[in-house]
Amino acid sequence: MGDSLLKDVFKMILPVKALIEEATSYVESEVNAVLQYRITDKKRIEKLLDQLLNYANMSDKADTLFKQLCNFYYFIFPVMVSEWIVIYEDMYGNAENDADFVYNDDMNALIETKRVMGNNSVTIITGDKHGDFRRIDALCSLASTTKDDLLIILGDAGINYYGGKREAQFKHTLAKLPITMLCIHGNHERRPESLRFYEEVEWRGGIVYMQPEFPNLMFAKDGEIYEINGKKCIAIGGAYSVDKAYRIARNLGWWADEQPTDEIKRRVENRLDQENWHVDVVLSHTSPLKYEPREMFLDFIDDSRVDKSTEIWLDAIEDRLDYEQWFCGHYHTNKTIDRLRFLYEDFFELK
């Protein structure tokens, strides 16, 4: 009786599933066109997200396409995409239950590290967040982190982007996370030294910027060297925004001091002089020119018009510097070249 009922249900589901797969295939061509031509028609994107969300529970392809759209358009329509992600999580489970949003090998390794180490603290490095801290939230929960654990974000954390009440509320939310953050300056955020509410505070042998009410949210000062896990780590932030024209035209956040000034460059070099050009770790936002991952370049951006003065300067630094490891973000990729490691979604434990 039970087997017969299951067979009848299965027969009913199969035609529905076939129709959903057919509908998904139609939407897939639309999604591919939108992504290929970087279309910024907000209503068109919302319509695609709405269609895919309805199919996602019965179509793996629809689920994948939905996440591809969210990943790409988050940086163009962050508020809109965030709202769709919340709807997705309400319908199909939150981030902690979704493998594509949360789990990967490096996160599982960190969870195991925390389990074995117990009360001992760990130092974790990751890439650009752009205001999306869902994976950090999941890591803190699953690995049972505390404020003794340190998370280094390699620029574009998205904490100093919006300003006003929205930003203050965001900081209040992040301050509740059981982890301490050290953020390198990126190119999609304001410099903390330009904001009146930040104070210079001594931390692990160097100076950081901090708001007294958010002591676990710190921002590195370029050229400072911090003692972290017995290693000398120098911070070098900033980069050029290839989307500068887009952001200015649409009155989105862009700041003229996104790249290191001549004064900052001198400060970095003077500090390295004091160390006889030897440090253990470099923490930068962008990379030396020789290591830039060209496969991540956007087809619609004319590379000849991109200001690479920061990367050229870092090239000269890298040629001269005696170091063990170099970590950077900016390019939204996870890869290792020689002693340099790009981080985006991955987590790396600094030992």
Can you offer a commentary on this structure?
With 351 residues, the chain is an alpha/beta fold. The chain has two domains: 2-93; 105-350, Purple Acid Phosphatase, chain A, domain 2 (4-Layer Sandwich), CATH 3.60.21. The chain has ten helices and 13 strands. The longest helix has 35 residues, at 2-36.
Brief summary:
This protein has helices at 2-36, 42-55, 60-73, 78-92, 105-117, 134-143, 164-175, 244-249, 262-274, 309-320; strands at 123-126, 150-153, 180-183, 199-203, 206-210, 217-220, 225-228, 231-236, 281-284, 325-328, 335-337, 340-342, 347-350.
Report the sheet with the most strands, covering strand number, pairing sense and barrel closure: 7 strands, mixed
Instruction: Calculate the mean pLDDT score and round it.
Output: 86
- Global shape: globular
* Total beta strands: 13
Alpha-beta classification: alpha/beta
The figure for the number of domains is 2
In CATH, the architecture of the largest domain is 4-Layer Sandwich
Order of helices and strands: HHHHHEHEHEEEEEEHHEHEEEE
Strand order of the largest sheet: 4-5-6-3-2-1-13
Identify the CATH class of the largest domain: Alpha Beta
Number of helices: 10
Name the features.
Purple Acid Phosphatase, chain A, domain 2, 2 domains, globular, 6-stranded mixed sheet, alpha/beta, 7-stranded mixed sheet, 15% strand, 351 residues, 10 helices
